[in-house]
Specification:
It is built from seven helices and 13 strands. By secondary structure, it is α+β, with helices and mostly antiparallel strands.
Amino acid sequence: MINPKPNTSPETAAGSVRVATFNILSPLLADWHRRKTVVAEQIRAAEPDIIALQEIDSGEDREQGITDLLGPGWHVAWHSRATPDGVGLALASRWPFSSIHEHGLGVTDRAAVFSWSAVVVAEVRAPQPLGALHIAHHKPVFQFDYEYERELQAVEAARFIEEVLDDRNEHVVVVGDFDATPDSSSVRFWTGRQSLAGVSVSYHDAWEALRPNEPGHTFTPDNPLVACGDMFSAAGRRIDYVMVRGGSFGPTLEVRSVDRIGVQPQDGIQASDHYGVVAELTVPARAPGNWADIRNRPAAG
C-alpha cells in the first residue's frame, strides 16, 4: 500500500517533489481495457509530481492516453522510438520542461535491435528551493542474459547525463525500469559500488536509503500477471528505481519517503506485472559536504 501525500499542489509543496516510475505493461496484453482504470487510480493515489512510464501506448492517440491515466495539464517528454506495435516510454511532469535531450543505447548489435532502449534527460522548471531539476528516464534492455549490454548502457547513460549537465551542480534524479537487481554490475555502477570502463558515478537508491532491510520486489511471481506471463520461472526481483545523484559527500536531495505502487489488486484486477516506485525527495537543510554548527545541537543524554 502507498501512503498518500497531503492534498497539496506542487506550488504549495515547493520544498519537495514526488518522483515515480511505473512499468504499466503493454496495452496489448492482459486485458488493458479493464487494467487501464486501475492503473490510473493507483497512479493518482500515489500523487506523483513527476512520473516515468514504461510500456505505454505511443501511437496516434498517445496524448489522450496520458490524459486518461494522469489527468489534464501534464507536460510530457516521450522517448522518440517505440516498438513496431506502438508501445513506448514517456516522462510526465506537473511542471514545464526547460529542455529535453535523448540518447539511444544501441551499444551492441543485439542491443541495437531494441530501438526504444534509450535515456531521456529532461530539465524540469521546479519552484524554489528545488530550482533546476534534471530527470533521467533510463531504459536498458530487459533480457536476463544481457547484463553486458546493461553495463555498457549504464556507462553511456551516465556519461550523457554529465554532458547535459555540463559541470552544473544541479539536482539529478534517475528513474526507470532498469531490469537489473541491486547486486547486478549495472546497478552497482549506478550506486557507486563499482566502476565500469574507467567511469564511476554515485547515485543513491531511494528504496535502499529508507528500507535497506526490505526486499521491495517490483517484479515477482507473487504478482498474478507475472505468474501467468512469459518470465514466470524466475525469483522475485527489485528492478525499478528512483535514484538521486550525489557527489563526494552524498546525495543532493534527501529521501523523505518511498513506497511501491500497484501492489494490491483492485476489484480483483492487477494493474501491471510490475509494481511501481514513488519517492518523496526534499532539499536538505544544508548541502552535503558542509558541517552543521555543533553549538546548536542538543547535548547528548
